[in-house]
TrEMBL record:
Residues 665-780 form the GAE domain. GO terms for cellular component: AP-1 adaptor complex; synapse. PROSITE patterns: GAE. The gene is AP1G2. The keyword Ribosomal protein does not apply. Keywords: Coiled coil, Cytoplasmic vesicle, Golgi apparatus, Membrane, Protein transport, Transport. It is found in: Cytoplasmic vesicle membrane; Endomembrane system; Golgi apparatus. One of its GO terms (biological process) is intracellular protein transport. Pfam families: Adaptin_N, Alpha_adaptinC2. Residues 1-28 form a coiled coil. It is a peripheral membrane protein. This is AP-1 complex subunit gamma. Belongs to the adaptor complexes large subunit family. Residues 592-614 are annotated as: Disordered.
Length: 785
């Protein structure tokens, strides 16, 4: 059987000539049978050839595990041809998950002790490729000795093996500290590159090593300056750049050594300036060195002028024809925009040009950077550019672009009219892509700008007459027409073109919204309410409005039906109350009356809590004093001091009576998550009428410089509880303290058992997908007792 076995070249040719996969399997199965028979017979002369064929079969994806023990035999063989194939087989067929890999530890140790460079190189390559933690601990002394061997070939492979050992077993760092300091004086580029890589691994894993190697910063600076200024042999030159691999590795090590260290940073400042100004950028190798220089400048305590130079280099990258380089530049500038905002602002025109890139990944990065560059001085120009991009951008970017424009307008709007115009243009262009809270925000903005009511309602009426497909725009327009419809029919507004509108036209437009197939149920609700409000805003006959309400009184949509039935009742039974019920909404300033109301409520709760501690006798005497008022004044009765006649205080004192139920004390809020500016808080409410029900409001805020997108919060509770998750207010948490995202959880706890809550968060932040799963066990006892 062995005699009929194929040679490796013949096997490769026969497999390539197979017409079908079945023919290929047949050839391989037949040859694997010959290989097994050869292994059983123990043919020492042809074992390495059989194993070589088996390794080729393994590379094609077929099982070859039966050759593992043959690898061990060949490694132990004194012949170099056997060792070479045996070590190759060990690297391909063995790994840490198989116990057989530990059997070659002694063979590797013996080969490392030999003086044959080729055998030592094979052993070191195998150890660095598949050495486990146990093997690294056993063989570390041998590798340490080889680091100082006279042969450059062995020293280079020993350094690379040491890098693998440090990654596997960080506690071995102490062994390699002294040899590394000596190897830095090497002139062999391969050894020097491996040594710098080894020192980088040591500094990242050991604070003691970091402090020790900060002393060699001047030596690293001299080495890099030599590479940059004097160059080296053509053997190490890549596209005219002197050994870019070594330059990049030295720059990475300098970045680690100079981080948060003033003296080291000062030593390398001049060198970094030389590298930045003397590196050729016409080739990709030079761009790689320049990019690593920029990262080093930004990560150490460099001078202000040097940081500006780094930003300018990234600005030049934006003009490069290579898309990969432009993408790297945009990503780096996005990270620097918070710390070096003014320097990045100089390249704003180039960044805006990148918005027109056909590559979606590039235009997305350019959009994120453009939004980060918006401030109070350039908000008009930048918003105009972004709105132009919104009209032609791919659908995948429309939601991010629309949300970014709305957030920028909210933060930096110069006037309320400009703010309203900007939001209206976004809703007209990409209304279906805006955030869920855009409608409420615009309604609040228009309501607070009393001087712009007439202007806003005319703008919205024109936009609604032209297009009723953008649902958020239709909802805002319906609300404004219902609220300020009387201003729509008045004389021309000074700030808009003359507009002559009749009552029938307004009613017909709203009825068209109600009948449109594109209208959502929420939009129909806005339109129905607007029609009802117009019955008090516009003069004349309301029969047509009554007919519409009657029609929708039998609508299949329960929400619309309920509204229509209630509005019909207002017409028929409570017509005298209709004007008062439908009067205009009061002006609400964000953060004004709401904050005052919360403060007032907290004050009332505190007073109620104090009232609960009053002795029973005092409460009883107050009750008798109140009852005395029914029988007239008594001369002997001792009345309490006169109360402040303000309505609020009167209400508070009336609630002090024992006959009135005391509301429960507020449940304290709880912070359950915080990472990179994203914070998650839980607030709790237990309705008095349903004590087994707990309402949890999940509030997500973001203080970082980048939006948190595709945010999803999922919750789980034990089986004895019932959990219902309401729809969140959105899936984006805006950056820098924008409007928070909220979601309501309804938990029914019939047994009043201690509550445990498990949350899973998934979101995208700073260009990375994040998933966090954690359990909340420290919920206040008030949530379940």
């Amino acid at each position: 059987m062995v005699a009929s076995s194929l040679k490796l070249q013949d096997l490769i040719q026969e497999i390539r000539e197979a017409k079908t996969q079945a023919q290929e399997r047949e050839v391989i199965q037949k040859e694997c049978a010959h290989i097994r028979a050869s292994f059983r017979d123990g043919d020492p002369l042809h074992s390495h050839r059989q194993l070589a064929k088996l390794l080729y079969v393994h590379m094609l994806g077929y099982p070859a595990h039966f050759g593992q023990m043959e690898c061990l035999k060949l490694i132990a063989s004194p012949r170099f041809t056997d060792k070479r194939v045996g070590y190759l087989g060990a690297m391909l067929l063995l790994d840490e998950r198989q116990d057989a890999h530990l059997l070659i530890t002694n063979s590797i140790k013996n080969d490392l002790s030999q003086g044959i460079e080729a055998v030592q190189g094979l052993a070191l390559c195998t150890l660095s490729a598949m050495g486990s933690a146990e093997m690294c601990r056993d063989l570390a002394p041998e590798v340490e000795k080889l680091l100082l061997q006279p042969s450059p070939y062995v020293r280079k492979k020993a350094v690379l093996t040491a890098v693998h050992m440090i990654r596997k077993v960080p506690e071995l760092s102490e062994i390699f500290l002294t040899p590394c300091a000596q190897l830095l004086h090497e002139r062999h580029h391969g050894i020097l590159l491996g040594t710098v890589t080894l020192i980088t691994e040591l500094c990242e894993r050991s604070p003691a090593a970091l402090q020790r190697f900060r002393k060699v910063v001047p030596q690293l600076v001299r080495t890099l300056r030599t590479l940059v200024m004097t160059g080296c042999s053509t053997e190490h030159s890549v596209s005219g750049v002197s050994d870019p691999f070594l330059q990049v590795q030295i720059l990475r090590l300098l970045r680690i050594l100079g981080r948060n260290h003033e003296e080291s940073s000062e030593t390398m400042n001049d060198l970094l300036a030389q590298v930045a100004t003397n590196t050729d950028t016409s080739r990709n190798a030079g761009n790689a060195v320049l990019f690593e220089t920029v990262l080093t400048i930004m990560d150490i305590r460099s001078a202000a002028g040097l940081r500006v130079l780094a930003v300018n280099i990234l600005g030049r990258f934006l003009l490069n024809s290579d898309r990969n380089i432009r993408y790297v530049a945009l990503t780096s500038l996005l990270k620097l925009v918070q710390s070096d905002h003014s320097a990045v602002q100089r390249h704003r025109p180039t960044v805006v040009e990148c918005l027109r890139e056909p590559d979606v990944s590039l235009s997305r990065r350019a959009l994120e950077l453009s939004l980060a560059l918006v401030n109070s001085s350039n908000v008009r120009a930048m918003t105009q550019e972004l709105q132009g991009f919104l009209e032609s951008c791919p659908p995948d970017l429309r939601a991010d672009c629309a949300s970014g424009i709305l957030l920028a307008a909210e933060r930096f709007a110069p006037t309320k009219r400009w703010h309203i115009d900007t939001i209206l243009r976004v809703l007209t262009t990409a209304g279906t892509y805006v955030r869920d809270d855009a409608v409420a925000n615009l309604i609040q903005l228009i309501g607070s700008a009393q001087e712009l009511h007439a202007y806003s309602v005319r703008r919205l009426y024109r936009a609604l007459a032209e297009d009723i497909s953008q649902q958020p725009l239709v909802q805002v327009a319906a609300w404004c027409i219902g609220e300020y419809g009387d201003l729509l029919l008045e004389g021309a507004c000074e700030e808009t073109e003359p507009l002559q509108v009749e009552k029938e036209e307004v009613l017909a437009l709203l009825e068209r919204v109600l009948q449109s197939q594109m209208s959502l149920p929420a939009t129909r609700g806005y339109a129905l309410t607007a029609l009802m409000k117009l019955s008090t805003r516009l003069h004349g006959d309301n029969n047509h409005i009554c007919q519409v309400m009657s029609i929708y009184g039998s609508c299949q949509d329960v929400e619309l039906q309920q509204r229509a039935v209630e509005y019909n009742a207002l017409f028929r039974k409570y017509d005298h109350l209709r004007a008062a019920v439908l009067e205009k909404m009061p002006l609400v300033e964000r953060g004004g009356p709401q904050v005052d109301e919360e403060a007032k409520e907290s004050k009332e709760v505190a007073q109620l809590s104090e009232a609960a501690t009053v002795p029973t006798e005092t409460q009883a005497s107050k009750l008798l004093d109140l009852l005395d008022l029914l029988d007239g004044p008594s001369e002997n009765a001792q009345h309490p001091p006169p109360l402040d006649p303000t309505p609020g205080d009167t209400l508070i004192h009336l609630l002090d009576l024992p006959c009135a139920p005391l509301p429960p004390a507020p449940i304290p809020k709880l912070k359950v998550f915080e990472r990179e500016g994203l914070q998650l808080n839980l607030s709790f409410v237990r309705p008095p009428e349903t004590p087994t029900l707990l309402l949890i409001t999940v509030t997500a805020t973001n203080t970082s410089g980048d939006d948190v997108t595709h945010f999803i919060c999922q919750a789980a509770v034990p089986k004895s509880f019932q959990l219902q998750l309401q729809a969140p207010s959105g899936d984006t948490v805006p950056a820098q303290g924008g409007l928070p995202m909220t979601q309501l959880l309804r938990i029914l706890n019939p047994n009043k058992a201690p509550l445990r809550l498990k949350l899973r968060l998934t979101y995208d932040h700073f260009g990375q997908s994040v998933q966090e799963i954690f359990e909340v066990n420290n919920l206040p006892v008030e949530t379940w007792q």
